[in-house]
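Weekly modeling sync, notes
Attendees: S.R. (lead), two postdocs, one rotation student

Agenda item 3: backlog of single-chain predictions. S.R. asked that every request posted to the team notebook include the full sequence so nobody has to chase files. The rotation student volunteered to paste the first one in as an example of the format we agreed on. Action items at the bottom.

Example entry:
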Amino acid sequence: MFLDWSVPPECPSAQTVAAQVTAIVGPELPREPLVVEGRVEVEDDPRRYRLELRIRLPEDEGTRAPSVRVMESSDCQKLGDAASLVISLDLQSRARLKGEATARSPATTQRARLAPPSRKRKTERLHGGLGADASGDLGSLPRVAGGGGVHAFVRYGALRGELGAMLWPRSEAAANSPFGGGAYLSLRTVSLTGCYAWLSRPELSACLHAEGGSLRSTSFGIGQPGTSTGAWFSAFLGLAARPLTWDGLSPRFVVEIGTPLRYGEVVIERIGRIHAPTTPLLRFGIALDVDLF
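Predicted structure, as returned to the notebook:
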């Protein structure tokens, strides 16, 4: 069943309606090829909700008019319950008619016994949205560092692509020298990530992540402090877990291991090297995704 559901925020979501249908008819019937379109319009003074529900088979598009039902109520939650019931009854009715037609045709029954079981095609849709990240890093900066960022993502079936930006606030690197001194370092990056989900419930994905940006250092404790900026490139391999999705919101947990590909060492004259990233790098964090479509 493909559910195209467009309603105001106060109405039940598409996930809620689909869950109610599954609770009524069980998990098998909602897998049947059926297109359901629901649109809710709001009328003020007095405030009422008008639901137009269209139900059809995929092969009927452009050749046969869909089944249309119109319902009104002052409570949009009740309209969602009514829509779940109507969809459930339609699925049960189609399944009963299909069973009766099969029973009346011996030839069809014989072919069904001899033919190998066919695989049901799953209709994939493109999804996308925005998210926020909170991450930890070990190896890129002098100390264990925390960073934050944002990202945009698209998802199609088991594939996911992501474009993100992160800021790692400054971390102190003290010189191992009797003269003292040191530098503050901060890291700003943009990244591209590709993931493949090899397990769907809960969702577990393998990911490749490449990032580039700038490593900024500001020296302290010396006669002439200065600031410099160097290029930064690194690559990571990791695992991501998305245990649940609730009304378009989903947390993701990420662990990555990587290596710096290009970076600038922080060196102070007469003191020596202050910092260079280690190998391997370790990243870990949590993200919150919001589906927009």
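Discussion: group reviewed the output briefly. The two ends are 18 Å apart (CA to CA).
Action items: rotation student to repeat for the remaining queue; S.R. to check formatting next week.
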